[in-house]
Amino acid sequence: MNENRVKWIFRLSFLLLAFLTIYIFLKLAPIWLPIVSLLKTFLIPFIISVFITYLLHPIIEKLSHRGFPKSLAILLIYFLFFGGIGIAIYKGIPVILSQLKDLADSFPEFSKTYRVWLKEIESGTSQLPAFVHGQLDDLLNSVESYVDYLLSRTISFLKGLLNSIFIIAIIPFIVFYMLKDHDQMIKALWYMTPRKLRKTGQLFFRDVDESLGNYIRGQLIVCLLVGATASVAFWISGMKYPLLFGSIVGVTNIIPYFGPIIGAIPAVIIAATISMKMVIIVIIVVFGLQFIEGNLLSPIIVGKSLRLHPIVIIAALLLGGEVGGVVGLIIAVPVVAILKVFIIHAKQHFTVIRKE
Questions:
Q1: What is the dihedral of CA 327, 328, 331, 336, to 10 degrees?
Q2: Are residues 115 and 138 in contact, defined by beta-carbon separation less than 8 angstroms?
Q3: What angle do CA 293, 221, 301 make, to 5 degrees?
Q4: Can you tell me the distance from the alpha carbon of 21 to that of 15, in angstroms, rounded to the nearest whole number?
Q5: Which of 23, 126, 165, 209 shows the greatest Cβ crowding within 10 Å of its Cβ?
Q6: Is 273 strand, coil or helix?
Q7: How far apart are the first and last CA of the chain?
Q8: Which residues cross the membrane (predicted)?
Q9: What is the helix, strand, coil percentage profile of the chain, to 5?
Q10: 335, HSE (Cβ side, Cα atoms, 13 Å)
């Protein structure tokens, strides 16, 4: 009995100490925030380079195992990847910016169309409370403001990229040396890790890679295919701003279940100002692509590497959306996949300790 009390006192003391430490840490924010900002500027290119290396290295390994010289495989994949990104940025960004600016300029006209519809609805639904009509009008104003906000944020983001051009230019060089010396760097990393943690750490990261690696690489390929196909389909059908809306469909496609709905909303809103036929075309394009993606592309490219129940994925998306908005929705599933592997390994670890 006394031992249990001591344990509980120890646990409560530890929690109180942890909360006190966090409180003091937050109070000292003016001191450490400038340091964090400096470290962030320094670390961001390395973090991006590590992520790109993680994506490209397995492809290089596969080419190498098939008899392709490793150095040649690195150069080929390296130039294809960065060459493709460079061409996409050079050709795509100006078009997307032009379409976004045109959308912002034209949105007052779209807004007038919706307001005419609202007046027709008001005359037909005069029995509804006045605040309902006010809410609909406020919604239009907020959407119009959001389009202007989105345009300004996009322009400021691109200006920020131009200001950080030196940091961005370093990334391809870091990636090249990371790909070239990948094996030596991994060996050095494990050499610096305490011996007790090496085996468990290697098993943990192996399982995370098996669960998450194929999912991330596959999802990026699928999103690229879906976005490109949606852009072409919108362009052929005569939809306005095809590259802009196709890009939105491609980016949101990374969000399971809710992605198609989020991606379809902006295109449907603008299509409604053109004609009902265009609305139907947009809906057919978006959900037709999602059907192909769910039944053909994802099973072949992504597979079932995550092994997460749909209810767990939906719960993670709801929590991620609440905490981090769109970014939270995008990273929710990978975070849950890592947590799942962590919990399994922690359970195995404590089971071994108990047996000993």
A1: 180
A2: no
A3: 60
A4: 10
A5: 209
A6: coil
A7: 24
A8: 12-36, 42-60, 72-93, 160-179, 220-237, 243-272, 279-302, 308-339
A9: 90, 0, 10
A10: 13
215-246 b/e (C-beta count within 10 Å ≥ 16 → b): bbbbbeebbebbbbbbbebbeeeebbbbbbbb
Neighbours of 263 (CB within 10 A): 27
- Report residue 54 as tokens: 């993680």
> Among candidates 279, 216, 259, which has minimal Cα distance to 55?
216
Predicted structure pTM score: 0.69
Residue 243's nearest CA partner among 102, 86, 113 is: 102
What does each of the 356 residues of the chain score in pLDDT, given as a tens digit?
Answer: 566 666 677 767 777 887 788 778 777 767 767 777 777 777 788 888 888 888 888 888 888 888 778 778 888 888 888 888 888 877 877 787 777 777 767 766 766 666 666 565 555 555 555 555 566 566 656 665 665 666 666 666 666 666 567 777 788 888 888 888 888 888 888 777 777 777 777 787 887 777 777 778 888 888 888 888 988 998 998 888 888 888 888 888 888 777 777 888 888 878 877 878 888 888 898 888 888 877 777 766 665 666 777 787 788 878 887 777 767 777 888 888 888 878 877 777 666 555 55
Q: Which of 288, 337, 346, 277 is nearest to 313 (CA)?
A: 337
Helix then strand count (H, E) for the chain reads: 13, 0
Cβ proximity of 270 and 110 under 8 Å: yes
The two three-digit tokens of residue 292, written as one number: 């192909």
Q: Which residue has the tokens 């807004």?
A: 111
Boundaries of every domain in the chain:
45-121+133-192, 196-355
Task: Give the DSSP letter of residue 269.
Answer: H
Question: DSSP assignment, residue 293?
Answer: I
Q: How is residue 230 written in tokens?
A: 């949606």
For 322, the token pair is 């609440």
C-alpha span between 12 and 6 (Å, rounded): 10
Q: Rounded to whole angstroms, how far apart are CA atoms 74 and 177?
A: 10
